[in-house]
Design brief:
By secondary structure, the protein is mainly alpha-helical. It contains four helices and two strands; from the N terminus they run βααααβ. α1 packs across α2.
Length: about 80
């Protein structure tokens, strides 16, 4: 995964999703990252959650369960 700050990702996400509220997106990202750091696991398979996907997708999930893909080398994760 490619590391990105919460603020930088939120701006990119807002640009692609203009109807989203930047403060809400930032808050969801912070909450998801906190859950990840506290050991939250995917609701489907039990792997560590993908904070970005969990914040955007609305449930705690890992990259594979959220996207259906295995290669996360070109995708972002907040830190």
């Amino acid at each position: 995964m490619i590391k990105i700050s919460i603020e930088e990702f939120a701006k990119k996400y807002k640009k692609s999703n203009p109807d989203e509220n930047l403060k809400d997106v930032t808050s969801r990202l912070k909450d998801a990252l906190k859950r990840k750091k506290e050991g939250a696991t995917c609701n489907v398979c039990g792997a560590p959650i993908w904070a970005i996907g969990s914040a955007v997708g609305g449930f705690d999930g890992c990259f594979t369960c959220i996207t259906g893909e295995h290669d996360d080398s070109e995708d972002y994760e907040v830190f």
